[in-house]
Specification:
Rossmann fold; two-stranded parallel sheet
């Protein structure tokens, strides 16, 4: 079953790298994608508890990027004249290449190992580093000021991203990839920087090397 790293929730007290055994703290409905991933995880847990004979895998990738990705997350950076650091926070981000996600999924089918697997490459990029790659300035802004504005813009469909997703740009929700490397003997083909740079170039962003 395809879940997401967002299922852990974006909270101030998150560890730097969330592990599969860390609790799923379902995020509020203000970010419906993460909220529903959290609800799904609850259903997965209930199914597993009732069906011990079934091999059940849950994949929790970080943000998936690649040359074939075209969604609101790939377009997000183009619309920002400046990159906002909410309350001055500059959290690390992870981006996994679509090919790595596909290969790990296939490996799980063959391996027949039950349980959840975080999917994320080695390396992170801070929000400010992504801004530097795009040649965009950063600006520290109060979270309390931005959130109601984003809520209004989302209501009138000016923004593709709901206001609740702002927490995921303010707080750490990186995931640990140790289990995927150990138990599947997998070596990621792309790191975070490689993945985001490839996506940016494919989508026509101006990238500073």
């Amino acid at each position: 079953m395809a879940s997401s790293g967002t299922a852990y929730g974006a909270y101030k007290d998150n560890p730097h790298f969330l592990k599969e055994e860390d609790p799923i703290r379902t995020f509020p409905p203000s970010f419906s994608y993460a909220y529903h991933k959290g609800l799904n995880e609850g259903l997965f847990k209930e199914f597993i508890e009732k069906n011990h004979d079934v091999i059940f895998n849950i994949i929790r990738p970080c943000i998936v990027y690649g040359q074939n990705v075209d969604n609101y997350l790939s377009r997000y950076w183009k619309k920002l004249p400046v990159i906002p650091l909410l309350d001055g926070n500059d959290p690390p981000w992870q981006f996994v290449h679509e090919d790595d996600v596909a290969e790990i999924t296939i490996k799980l089918v063959d391996a027949k190992i039950s349980g959840a697997f975080n999917i994320a490459p080695d390396g992170v990029m801070k929000y400010s580093e992504i801004a530097k790659m795009l040649g965009k300035p950063v600006m520290k802004v109060p979270f309390w000021l931005v959130k109601p504005i984003a809520r209004l813009l989302w209501k009138f469909r000016y923004l593709e991203m709901p206001h609740g997703a702002l927490d995921y740009t303010a707080y750490t929700w990186t995931v640990d990839n140790g289990r995927s490397k150990r138990e599947l003997n997998y070596s990621y083909k792309y790191d975070t920087r490689d993945t985001i740079k490839l996506m940016f170039k494919t989508q026509g962003y101006k990238v500073r090397e």
